[in-house]
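Hi support team,

I'm filing this because I wasn't sure whether my run with 0O2 finished correctly. The job status page said complete, but I'd like someone to confirm that the output block is well-formed before I use it downstream. Pasting the exact inputs I used:
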Amino acid sequence: MNAGQVLIQGGFTLNVQEYMSEGVDSWKSFMLLYNSALKEMGTRVEILNDEFQHIHQYNPIEYVKKRIKQPESIVKKLRRYGYESTIENMVKYINDVAGIRIVCSFTSDIYRLAEMIRSQNDIKVLSIKDYIKNPKPSGYKSYHMIVTIPIFLSDRVVDTKVEIQIRTLAMDFWASLEHKIYYKFEGNAPDYISRDLRECANIVSMLDAKMLSLNEAILEAKRKQGDPIPEAWEPSGKPPVEENELTLLHEFDRTRQKKDDR
Ligand code: 0O2
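And here is everything the job wrote out:
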């Protein structure tokens, strides 16, 4: 047992790389882990939403999508990063083998949910990318977290990576269409298409801002009518992590060079 490992119920915690160095190297073993991590994270998110509904009569989450990355996409991504297609490289360099997307109503819900996930003390946040504050050149907006969640196996606990994407309905609408268009052109869309997509991204941002201020106006009107407003309805709009903290929050292997900054 390494110094950093913690004894839990007779077993000990490992990260996926340590788990691999203990001789576990089959595709099926890792898929079992990633699938379990998705289930576990899905349940945590569902509980947060249910609790919100119970206490505040309000659901911050519109819907949740979970997926395990297809083997072809894993191979493609490894190739893009300049790595051989091995299980070891997948475990080391692909952070989104298990991915969960949480789609919310308002931008303020995104930060509130991110904070609730971050404050669960067995979830470790490895990195955060706030593409809402800093959209991608494509116009892409979303809040990304790479976290690990403990998976309790029969004799040990494995902290397993999950990518969490949190975005509004409008951001999700744009990203889904852009993803399809990007694939149609295999990354080489004509300039005018990319320009128009960026323009659509701006419209989507305006729509989000308008819907948020509309929500605030509704709350204000209800307050004036004397209706009690649950506190959690109030949009906080404050990112849970400041910009200078956006990269590494924990020791994390980021040695690879990305070939593609998309
Ligand atoms: P797919 O097919 O959706 O899975 P990282 O390993 O996290 O450091 P990565 O994966 O490039 O590097 O990180 P990033 O930038 O956070 O992007 C992760 C995912 O965000 C992508 O996964 C997309 O799902 C989404 N994304 C990022 N940029 C864009 C964009 O410009 N448009 C759209 N529509 N989605 C984007 P994959 O693996 O690229 O694709």
